[in-house]
């Protein structure tokens, strides 16, 4: 009796699954492709075994896969993503992927496995490598195979990584437009800046790069024909650096400047900046204990400046803010950290 009941239950489950399959197959191809796109990667591969139609449509759905990371939401039930898993995915969508992001807490078993799939990513444009035990060999292999990289982000690589390793890798990126780097271990030598492509580089974002030889860089910066955005966070440690940085900035058509947590930034820097960097349109100054009302008043002398954002400047007073607002110079002026935000 129990066996008969169990068999009937199994038969009912099979019938339900069959009916569900029949119902979903009434959807047209476009609807099914949209559904498949929303599935985790492990399921998208599995459904290819359901039937011939699903196999064709599942493979078609990879055409719209522009971004790959290794989050659990993206991959589903995989505990660790090994080389074979990467190859399966890369063979299906590698030619369409534009953006690859790798973070340390994600479940890729070894970052060196990326070497074996790099050749399947010929159109990759954005490569974001964060906090990983990244070796120079792996980085060079990725960049050699992905020659269309226009945006490269590297954060917190290991101490064994040398400045020469980084400059060698960057010299491969002939089309690079944006470079982001965060690391306090590497000496940021002149060779690293020289390795950036002078004709194409437009944005540089540096974080915790305290070992920069600014006094050797004005000549290098003068070769950057299209560099219009520079971000420096915890990069300027003393006032002696500020003069050399101004010498670098006046060599380029800079439009956006972001400065945050730089102990070497004081009023004298902003005054000199206003005199020598007339192309600036957008400036952001954050977390500085040396900027006063005198320094921010110099910003009103910049002919092209449109947007000013300031945050956590404890020496700036309401009087200084009011003086700037009365001049009505900027399209956007925002300040926080003094419990006052003004938008015009």
TrEMBL record:
The lineage of its organism: Eukaryota, Metazoa, Ecdysozoa, Arthropoda, Hexapoda. This is F-box domain-containing protein. Residues 26-65 form the F-box domain.
